[in-house]
TrEMBL record:
Keywords, alphabetical: Disulfide bond, Signal, Transferase
Coiled coil start-end: none
PANTHER family (alphabetical): GLYCOSYLTRANSFERASE FAMILY PROTEIN 64 C3
Pfam families documented for this protein: Glyco_transf_64
GO molecular function term, any single one: glycosyltransferase activity
A cellular component annotation (GO) from this entry: membrane
Span of the signal peptide: 1-23
SUPFAM superfamilies found in the cross-reference section: Nucleotide-diphospho-sugar transferases
The keyword Disulfide bond belongs to this UniProt entry's keyword annotation: yes
Taxonomic source organism: Ceratopteris richardii (Triangle waterfern)
UniProt similarity note: Belongs to the glycosyltransferase 64 family.
The protein's name in its UniProt record: Glycosyl transferase 64 domain-containing protein
Span of domain Glycosyl transferase: 49-295
Length: 316
């Protein structure tokens, strides 16, 4: 029956593809078909996938170096460099093949320059958690391990290194975006871990209008993710102590609090405050919650003493 070979094999390939998802949807709406993605309980819990956003060609050498350094870690399942510059020629990106020292490194070209695309759910992700990071931040493998450990104990929350805060201005009747010395409600996507499932929730379950607003402002996708998670958990994010190295991006950067006076930075903060105000309206409430304090990686060894027949802490 299947004799016209080329036609048949193409058909069979198509059938195999269709077989993976139980129902076929056209590409535009297929993103939100749950069946396209592994079920959370089928994903690995002992490893993490890294989604690193890259855009500037001049930083490609740094991106490669960062990806290579993460590939050594046994807790890293795979590293995906989400490349957002659509004009970058393939030849520039293709030199990643021999980079890996362990975990595979992939370049994933984004289909658009929308900031929302960094949070697209991906059928290829095989882990329950993803590390979201920018291309100009490095953390040590010990910090990565600790961050992942803390996420495992708080798997519904955002766990990260860079905290920010929202605050209400009574007179202006609007929200501001700020740094508060002892509380925080927003974790920056410079580097953070979230459950993989939040990518789906961000893309498919956010209130209408949020993604369009982000596209119009070219900003605040990270704040929206914090809204998604806070709304799902009714909890704030978790801050972990560490010393991530920031190589200083200017695009969508938040280094605005360390340098004084520049009007561009003031403008950036204002824009982010406006995002909070708009998201508050679109969510019809304020899901963001404050957290206090941070988790410290205490490497101090527990010295045990034998007292009678049992081991107890020496200072107890
Ligand atoms: C994006 O790619 C184009 C084409 O290679 C390049 O001219 C441009 O500088 C790139 N943008 C950045 C920010 O690197
Ligand atoms: C780069 O890699 C892609 C995907 O593997 C391939 O389609 C393309 O031909 C490669 N381009 C070059 C210039 O090597
Ligand atoms: C926020 O959380 C509430 C309570 O769980 C839920 O009913 C609502 O649908 C959520 N809103 C969004 C936009 O996810
Ligand atoms: C050790 O055991 C003895 C006998 O059981 C008991 O009298 C003594 O109080 C114990 N010492 C400590 C430090 O627990």
């Amino acid at each position: 029956m299947f004799t016209s070979a080329p036609y048949t094999s193409a058909l069979l390939v198509l059938l195999c593809l269709l077989d993976h998802s139980s129902s076929y949807l056209p590409p535009s709406s297929s993103q939100c078909n749950r069946n396209l993605y592994p079920q959370p309980w089928n994903l690995r819990f002992d490893q993490i996938s890294i989604l690193m956003s890259g855009f500037a060609e001049k930083r490609l050498p740094l991106v490669r170096q960062i990806a290579r350094s993460y590939s050594v870690s046994p807790i890293v399942n795979a590293i995906y460099i989400l490349w957002g510059n659509m004009s970058t020629p393939w030849q520039l990106l293709n030199q990643t093949d021999s980079l890996s020292l362990g975990a595979p490194i992939y370049i994933v070209r984004q289909d658009s320059t929308s900031l929302n695309d960094r949070f697209l759910p991906r059928a290829f992700i095989q882990t329950r958690a993803v590390l979201i990071c920018d291309d100009d931040i490095t953390i040590t493998l010990d910090e990565l391990k600790f961050l992942f450990q803390m996420w495992k104990e708080n798997e519904r929350r955002i766990v990260g290194f860079f905290p920010r805060s929202h605050e209400y201005q009574i007179h202006q009747k609007s929200w501001i975006y700020t740094i508060h010395p002892d509380r925080y409600s927003i974790m920056l996507t410079k580097v953070m871990i979230i459950a993989t499932d939040y990518l789906y929730q961000y893309t498919c379950k956010m209130p209408k209008g949020v993604k369009a607003y982000i596209d119009s402002q070219m900003n605040c996708e990270d704040i929206a993710m914090n809204f998604v998670v806070a709304n799902a958990t009714d909890q704030g994010p978790l801050l972990v102590s560490g010393n991530p190295r920031d190589w200083g991006d200017t695009r969508n950067s938040d280094s605005d609090f360390s340098v004084s006076g520049l009007s561009a930075k003031k403008e950036h903060r204002k824009k982010r405050g406006d995002c909070i105000t708009v998201f508050h309206q679109l969510w019809e409430g304020m899901p963001l919650r404050y957290s206090y304090g941070k988790v410290v990686n205490n490497v101090e060894e527990q010295v045990l003493c034998q007292k009678n027949d049992t081991l107890v802490r020496c200072n107890s």
